[in-house]
Amino acid sequence: MSIANDILQAIGNTPIVQLRKVVPPNSAKIFVKLEWSNPTGSMKDRMAQSMIARAEEDGRLQPGGIVVEYTGGSTGTSLGLICAAKGYKLKIVTSDAFSEEKRVHMQALGAELTLVPSEGGRTTKKLIREMIEVARDISSEPNSYWTDQLNNYDHVAGYHSLGHEIWEQTEGQVDVFVQSVGTAASILGVSEVLRERKPSLHVVAVEPAESAVLSGGETGSHNIEGIGIGYEPPLWDADRVDEIIPVSTVEAKAMARRLAREEALFAGTSSGANVVAALNVAEKLGPDVTIVTLMVDSGLKYLSTDVYQESRAD
Q1: 216 shares its domain with 195
Q2: Which of 122, 159, 227, 288 is at a distance of 20 to 30 A from 45, taking alpha carbons?
Q3: Contacting residues for 53 by C-beta, under 8 A, at least 6 apart
Q4: Count of CB atoms within 10 A of residue 168's CB?
């Protein structure tokens, strides 16, 4: 491995491993990409780097500028990394609906936080809308650049590298890609690259069962951080997805705990949801199929939540 010139060169090139113990016999093979190996412990480092680089290139972000974003925490932490490395001030709008670890991490990287209160610590459409409007107001300040992740197509390209890595690491033997939907950028960016090389790729979107709007259900509240904004994300393109699988918060958290205990993979709740959905597909398609999904972020981001605190009594 070569020596990186700075922390930004450490983004990407994450490992991929096969699940061995949670996958039933005669199911498809499931591989998980360990995106927690990125510097902030999340796949969002890829998209934050892309959004800032493209804004610099076309002049939307000027030297000495202020970056503004609404976020559950992982995007904000990744922007904190990029802004600290490049010398930009960062203003983040977030909420108590998301883990304390994420807020502390953002502040440690120099972000100034504005908190929007939630309804009982749950993610809802109302909360996301309120966060967006607060960020919009802050972004009206002079010399500000609002990354506006839900409407910013720049960060789709940030996930192209992830698609290339999956193709190379599986030696082109990927049949199914499974990913949970927040902004929809990661599922679009990865599938764009993989489908160029394998048009038959089966793409599976994952959403919270309590707010299964992509499947035609009603908006609702849930506790799977980082996904399920309660309405169809502006970047969402249903024509580029073959299947949508709703996964409940309870199922996602239970799988996150199983992954830690049985596979020694310490991941967040959306990663648990990804594996629940991948297992669903694996049992249907059988042993001759290869499925890839993501360990979106590290379980270290959720130590203060009930995802792992509940396991102490188990």
Answers
A1: yes
A2: 122
A3: none
A4: 11
For residue 232, which of 303, 140, 157, 128 has the smallest C-alpha distance?
128
pTM of the model: 0.94
Q: Annotated active-site positions, please? A: 44, 270
- Asked if residue 269 lies in contact with residue 225, where contact means CB atoms within 8 angstroms, the answer is yes
Going from the C-alpha of 52 to that of each of 8, 47, 247, 257, the distances in angstroms are: 12, 9, 32, 34
Nearest to 227 by CA among 178, 163, 160: 178
Same domain, 106 and 196: no
Q: Which two tokens stand for residue 70?
A: 């609404």
Task: Give the model's confidence band at 82: pLDDT under 50 very low, under 70 low, under 90 confident, else very high.
Answer: very high
DSSP secondary structure of 280-312: HHHHHH-TT-EEEEEE-BBGGGGTTSHHHHGGG
User: Among the three residues 123, 153, 183, which one is the final residue of a domain in this structure?
Assistant: 153
Look at residue 1 in the predicted model and tell me its pLDDT: 65
**Whether the Cβ atoms of residue 178 and residue 273 lie closer than 8 Å to each other:** no
Q: Which domain holds residue 288?
A: 7-37+157-313
Q: Looking at the domain assignment, is residue 1 inside a domain?
A: no
Q: Do 66 and 15 have their domain in common?
A: no
pLDDT of 289 > 70? The answer is yes
The answer to the question of residue 303 being in a domain is: yes
Of 5-14, 16-25, 285-294, 300-309, the range with the lowest mean pLDDT is 300-309
Do 171 and 277 belong together in one domain?
yes
The pLDDT confidence band at residue 313, using thresholds 50, 70 and 90, is very low
Q: What is the pLDDT of residue 314?
A: 43
- CB neighbours (10 Å) of residue 4? 11
Number of domains forming the structure of the chain? 2
Gap between the Cα atoms of 67 and 76, Å rounded: 10
